[in-house]
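Hi there. Long-time user, first ticket. I'm pasting a complex I've been working with (about 689 residues overall). I'd like to know whether the download I got is complete or cut off, because the file seemed smaller than I expected. Thanks.
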Amino acid sequence: MSIVPAPVEAQTPVPDDPALIERLYRNLRLTRLVEDEVARVYPTDVIKSPVHLSIGQEFVSVGVCDALEPSDHVSITYRGHAAYLAKGGDLNAMIAEMYGKKTGCAQGRGGSMHLVDMAAGVIGASAVVGTSIPVATGFALAAKRKATGTANSGVVACFIGDGATEEGCFAESLNFAALHRLPILFVCENNGYAIHEPLAKRWATDRLCERVATYGIPATRIEDGDVFTVRDAAAAAVRAMRAGHGPAFLEVMCYRWREHVGPSEDFNQGYRPASDMAPWAARDEVARLAALLPPDRVAALEAEIAATVAAAFAFAETSPFPLSEDLYDHVYA
Amino acid sequence: MTTSTPDGRLLRYVDALREAVAQEMRRDADVFVFGLDVDDHKSIQGSTAGLLAEFGAERVFTTPLSEDAMTGVAIGAAMAGMRPIHVHIRMDFLLLCMNQLINIAAKARAMYGGSVTVPLVVRSMVGKSWGQGAQHSQGLHSMFMHVPGLKVVAPSNAHDAKGCMIAAIRDDNPVIFMEHRLLYPTEAYVPEPAYEVQPGKARVVAPGSDVTMVGISNMVLECLRARELLAEVGVSAEVIDPIWLTPLDIDTIAESARRTRRLLVADNGWTACGAGAEIVAGVLERLGPEGGVAVKRVGFAATACPPSPVLEAAFYPNPGTVASAAHALVHPAAPVWTPDPERTKLAHQVQFRGPF
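Hi, the file is complete. Here it is re-exported in full:
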C-alpha cells in the first residue's frame, strides 16, 4: 500500500513569464546535476561526509528561495544541498566542504550536514533534527528588531522535514514566533519518512497544518509538487511578513527518490515500494520545466550548468586539505 | 552606610550584576535580556530590577516556558549580530537547554568554519538552603566545562560579579554564567565605571603555606571561613578563587600547590567527574614528576539534594568539613580534627568585602 500520496494535479497555471521559468529551471537543474554528480563520485570515496540527497525534492527549495532576497536568511537541514544552492550558496565551497578541503564553506569542519554560507544568508544546518528551528527563529527575532518597516525588511525561511515537527522545539518555536509576530516562514518538506519510519508510525493524525494554525499561524499544504505553486505561496507569505505580519507555514508534500543517506535508491530494502515514487517521478519538475523552455535554450543552459558543476568538482579535487595544525582553529572566537 | 573609595562602593552581588548589565545595555544597543520572569515585579531576585523601565520591552522581556527553543532563539539572535543575555532563575533549568548549548552554541563557530560568532551569556543561579530540594540546587558547571567552545564563569563576590558579567557580555563566545543565590546579598567594593574581570585568571584570595584550598562559587567564602578555623590550630591555608572555570587558570593553582604540596578543591557540585577532579588532574599534570601533592576533593554528597534541614546540612560541605579535610591533608597521621559545628553554621553569611 502506498504511504506517500501521489501529487495531485498541478494547481497553478504555468506563468507567462519566460524569465521566471528559466530562473527556476536553472536552479532546479543545477541542483539535480550537482547531486547526480555527488552520487556518481560517491563510491570513489572522494566525498568525506555522509550525504543526504535532495533529488526529487528540489522544487521546494527552489520555489521558496525564489521569493527571497539575497539579504534574507535561510536555515537548512542536513538534507540541505538544494536549499543551500537555491539561496545562492557558493557551489565551489559546498563541494570542497564535502571533499573535506580547506576551501570548503566551513573549511572542512562542517561536512555535507552543516553547510553554511553567511554571505549568501545560509545560516547553517544541524544534524540533530529540529535543532535549527529555534536558531532560525532567533534570526527572525534579530530581523524584526532591525526591521525598517519597508519592503526591505529581512525575513527568514526555515526549512524542516516532517520528522522535525515532532520535536518539542518545533511547537515552542511556533508559539514564540507567533507571539512576537516574527518574520519567519516555516517550510516543512513532508516526504513521508523520517529515516525509514513512515508517518503512519509517528503521527496520531496527519493534520499538521491544523496543529500549526492553532498558534494563529497561516498554514498551507501544497500537494501538487509544483514549483510555481510553492513559489507563489512563499512569495505571498514573504510579502505579508515584510509588511509586518507574523510567521507563516507551508507543508509541501514531496518524495525522496534516493535512500535516507547515501547515493543510491533503496526500494530493494522493503520499507517502501518503488510504486510510491513512480507518480512523483512522472511529475518531475526538472523535466517539466525543461519542456516549457525552447530546446536550444535548454541545451545552452545544460552546457553552462554542466561546466559550472564540473568546475566545482575540479575545484574541490585540486583544493588542499586543511593542515593538522589547523585543528584548534575557531574553537573560540 | 555606603562608603566610596578608589576601589568603589560597597555593593551587593545582586546589585553589581544589575549594574553591569545596565551599563552594557547603555553602551551597546544589541545587548538584550530575556528569560522567564526577568520583567516581573520580583525581577529575578532583584538582579534585573529597573531594566524594563530603562530599556523597554523590546530589550527586556519574558519568555514562554520553552527553555529549549528560547536557547536556540538566543543563539540565532547572537549569530545574527545581537548580544543576548538569557536568564534562568535556577541552574537546573539549563538541563532543558543542553541540546542547543552543546550542539549549537558550543560548536557553531568551529562547525561553520569560523564564519559565525555566538556572543551569548546564559545567566543561571544555584539555589541552596530553605529546602531548595533536588531540582533547585544543582551546580552543573562541570558539564559545561567538558565541552569545548563554551566559557564558564562562577564569580564569588560582587566585584567579580560585575567584572565577569561585563567581560561575558563583551565576549564573542557563549558564556555560562553561574551565580549563587546565597551570594546575592554579600557585599564587596565595586568600582562604578565599567571594568572586566578577564577570562582565564584566577585570584589568590588569601595567602598561606601549608595547604592550597580552591573554592568554586560560594565555596570561596566557605574556604575563607575554613581558613580562619585552620589558623586557630596552626594550619596556614592559601585560598584561591579560579573565577573562570573555562578557561581555567591552572598555572596559578599549580604554582600554589607546588609550594604547599597539598591541594584541596571545595566545589559547589558533586565530585565525580567534577570541576575538582579537573583541577586536581590539571595541577598534577602540570607539576609532572615533581608532583607529590596530596589532593582532596570536597563537594556535594553523592545523592539528590534533600530539603529536610538535617539531611540538607549533611549534603553540603561547610567550613567545618572543608577545614577538617584540609587538616587531614596537612596532618595525615593525626587524629581527625573537627571544628566546633556551632562556629561554622552561618559561615556562608559572612560577607567577604574585598577590596580587590
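A couple of notes from our side: Chain A touches chain B through 42 residues (CB under 8 Å). Chain A has a mean pLDDT of 95.
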